[in-house]
Amino acid sequence: MSAVAHVALLHQGRVLVVDGRLPELEVDEDVAEHEDERFMRALDLVGADVYLAPMLRVEKDRYLDVVGCRGLPVPHGTWVGPTELADPDLSKLLAGTLRELGEPPALRPEWFRAGWYDEVEAWVDEHLAATGRRRTGVMRVSRVWSISAVLRVPTDAGDVWFKASCDLFRSEAALHRVVARHFPDDVPVLIATDDDRGWLLMEAMRGAGESDRVPGADAALAERWGVVQLASLEVLDELRAAGAPVRGADVTVAGFRRAATESPELASLTPEQRTALDRVMDEVERMVHEFWDCGVPDTLNHGDLHLGNVAYDGSVLRVFDLTDSCVSHPLLDGYHLAHFDEKRPSESALFAAFVAPWRAAFPDARIDRAAELAPVANLAFQADTFHRISVATEPASTYELGGVVAYLLRQLPEKVAAAREG
Fold first, then answer.
1. What letters, b where the CB count within 10 A reaches 16 and e where it falls short, cover 171-192?
2. pLDDT at 210
3. Helix locations, 30-87, DSSP H
């Protein structure tokens, strides 16, 4: 589905226009890889290098990107005040953004704060110097939104990557460091971390994008990640000490119930859908507990395991984006991996490969019943995750993942019926 992004380059309270209008670009919301690409395209369109605020939704299929020049020269052109724009919706949003630059709203991430890039560059330069490298240009935005900031850093020995996470996921840096210490070949290679600020500096990876990821990454991941999880049983204390949330059955049920009773997205459910959800609430709770009682211990859980979070060049496989990592039921990762892409048929072979090491390690575990319950448990787990995000992020940016909680809750009655029959 295509949408339009209006790009507002702000400088000294004025905005760059072309023929009286904000420059704009068409973006494809259906292609996951384009989500990051659109940030770079928007910046390049007007010669900017930083985002000054989160992307704003004007209306359905229309967005506003507010950007600025930090390390790049301000381009020549026609500059007008926000109120001089012909589009009243854009004028209103820009005027509000200008006010917020001086007094940011609660929960706005620090990467939209003045001076943040200066702190990051000083930290990056220090740690690059320790490896004999130096930065050769301004850091380029790959993605900045309510959850994280990902920047590409050019150096005299090739690009490296910087990531910062929001307060909800600030423990990602410390967690990544623990995982990298025990499983160095399975996650991005770290150059440095700042655990207090939730910053990571990482080496580049081959095969991290859809365009250069080698076919077979899903099968390779299904075979490998269960092995990593089994080995993680030896380091759970370290993971918890590093800040890994412990999300067992009780926590998942409680989080699911909060999502199913408190989420603003419940308003988008029809009365029939709401009634159907209410009828299965108690059954969801029972099934989640049964899923956890099938005889498989909690381990390292990625939390969002799918091909978009794996780099594979045909020989080296690395799992990245440990934002949602926690200590939880390992088969949630396997089910999520096998069923994340709705455009392909159900990949039972992927799930079978994923659970193979678990069958061997825990022969008495009721793996087949866990597989029947996994669709319900995964929906409850993910509803909890996305509701947590909506509560912890700026209200103006909730559209970024808006509708996900409702989408998950709508599916539960059908999944419960299927698990009941199984």
1. bbbbbbbbbbebbeebbbebbb
2. 83
3. 33-46
Contact 56, 66 (CB under 8 A): yes
Average of per-residue pLDDT across 45-51: 96
Q: How far apart are CA 266 and CA 256, in angstroms?
A: 13
The topology (CATH level 3) of 217-421 is Aminoglycoside 3'-phosphotransferase; Chain: A, domain 2 (3.90.1200)
Residues 6+ apart with CB under 8 A from 197: 164, 170, 173
At the top level of CATH, the class of 111-203 is: alpha beta
From the CB of residue 212, how many other CB atoms can be counted at a distance below 10 Å?
12
248/326 Cα distance (integer angstroms): 10
Residues pairing with 21 in the sheet: 18
* Closest to 381 (Cα-Cα) out of 314, 262, 289: 289
Share of the chain above pLDDT 70, in %: 96
Positive/negative CA dihedral, 40, 133, 210, 342: negative
Question: Would you say residue 31 has pLDDT above 70?
Answer: no
Sign of CA dihedral 99, 101, 103, 108: positive
Q: How far is the C-alpha of 302 from the C-alpha of 318, rounded, in Å?
A: 12
Closest CA relative to residue 258, chosen from 146, 373, 402, 409: 409
Q: What's the DSSP call for residue 61?
A: T
Q: Extract the tokens encoding 145.
A: 């939104």
Taken as a whole, the chain contains a residue count of 422
CA distances from 182 to 16, 46, 165, 243, 419 (A): 50, 44, 22, 16, 36
- Taking only the tens place, the pLDDT of each residue in 272-307 is 999 999 999 999 999 999 999 999 999 999 999 999
Structure tokens at 97: 């953004």
pTM (2 d.p.): 0.94
Tokens matching residue 382: 């993910």
- Which two three-digit tokens encode residue 298? 């909690």
Give the model's pLDDT for residue 33: 44
CATH class, 2-103 region = alpha beta
Domain positions in the chain are 2-103, 111-203, 217-421
pLDDT at 32: 46
Please, which pLDDT band fits residue 34 given cuts at 50, 70 and 90? very low
**Please, which pLDDT band fits residue 422 given cuts at 50, 70 and 90?**
low
